[in-house]
Structure formats: C-alpha cells, structure tokens
C-alpha cells in the first residue's frame, strides 16, 4: 500500500539552471552533438502553479506499475480537477493514499498499480476527498539500488 507524507507547498523560484539543447541517448553519446546552453526554470518545466502545488513523499510499492516507488517525491496540483485515469492523492476515511482514480458504472475506485493490491471500491458510507492530482515524480537515483 502506498502512503504519503505531505512535505509542504512549493514556492516560486527565480533560479534558472543550465540546460543543454541536446537529446541525450541512453546508449553511447554522440561526440558530434552541438550543445547550446540556455537557462531553464524548474517552475516552468514542472508547470508549478503556486500556491496550488505541493510535494508529498511516498512510502510503499502499490504504485510501482505507474513508475512511483518507495521514497519518491510527487508534485501534486490542486488546480487540476481529478478525472478517472489520473493518479491522485486521496484521503479515504482518514487514510492518505496515492492511487489511480477509476470509475466503473458510476462507482469510483482507487486502484493500485501493483497486482499484489486489490482495488478499493468507494462505498456509500466512505469519506473520500481528492487532495490533488499527481503531475510529476522525483526520484533520487543515488539512493535506489
């Protein structure tokens, strides 16, 4: 089961990072690539819409099939209306979860992206609040093995 820890809202930044206009192959790099540097804003790259964007930390493996792994940080937007198919941060009966929102025959479902976990059908007495839609995930590749 994937649980989340809310780390806080993102703040706008004027920091620009160097970005090289070259597609880097995952195989052998081409020495003939012409690298032209420009400055890139992570705010623009991640489409950060402060104050409607926040970061959560994920624990668990229930969303591994969606490329969301234990220890990842998720960028979550409250400005996007959740629709079936979106990965969402949801509060279900007091538990905060990261799941894929689905709907079948009018019934909402929170689905894991790991076959080891069953879908959670939202029942009449359940309290469900969608806190936001996941737009990006960030992973520290130095800590994953």
UniProtKB/TrEMBL annotation:
<feature type="domain" description="Peptidase S24/S26A/S26B/S26C">
    <location>
        <begin position="23"/>
        <end position="134"/>
    </location>
</feature>
<dbReference type="InterPro" id="IPR050077">
    <property type="entry name" value="LexA_repressor"/>
</dbReference>
<comment type="similarity">
    <text>Belongs to the peptidase S24 family.</text>
</comment>
<dbReference type="InterPro" id="IPR036286">
    <property type="entry name" value="LexA/Signal_pep-like_sf"/>
</dbReference>
<dbReference type="InterPro" id="IPR015927">
    <property type="entry name" value="Peptidase_S24_S26A/B/C"/>
</dbReference>
<keyword id="KW-0378">Hydrolase</keyword>
<dbReference type="InterPro" id="IPR006197">
    <property type="entry name" value="Peptidase_S24_LexA"/>
</dbReference>
<keyword id="KW-0227">DNA damage</keyword>
<keyword id="KW-0742">SOS response</keyword>
<dbReference type="Pfam" id="PF00717">
    <property type="entry name" value="Peptidase_S24"/>
</dbReference>
<protein>
    <submittedName>
        <fullName>Peptidase S24</fullName>
    </submittedName>
</protein>
<keyword id="KW-0234">DNA repair</keyword>
<dbReference type="InterPro" id="IPR039418">
    <property type="entry name" value="LexA-like"/>
</dbReference>
<keyword id="KW-0068">Autocatalytic cleavage</keyword>
């Amino acid at each position: 089961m994937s649980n989340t820890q809310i780390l806080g809202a993102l703040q706008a930044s004027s920091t620009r990072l160097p970005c090289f206009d070259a597609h880097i192959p995952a195989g052998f790099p081409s020495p003939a690539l012409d690298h032209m540097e420009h400055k890139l804003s992570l705010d623009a790259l991640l489409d950060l819409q402060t104050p409607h964007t926040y970061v959560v930390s994920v624990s668990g493996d229930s969303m591994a099939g969606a490329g969301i792994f234990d220890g990842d940080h998720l960028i979550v937007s409250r400005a996007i209306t959740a629709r079936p198919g979106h990965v969402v941060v949801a509060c279900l009966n007091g538990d905060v979860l990261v799941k894929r929102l689905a709907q079948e025959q009018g019934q909402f479902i929170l689905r894991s992206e790991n076959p080891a976990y069953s879908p959670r059908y939202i029942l009449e007495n359940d309290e469900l609040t969608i806190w936001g839609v996941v737009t990006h995930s960030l992973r520290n590749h130095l800590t994953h093995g």
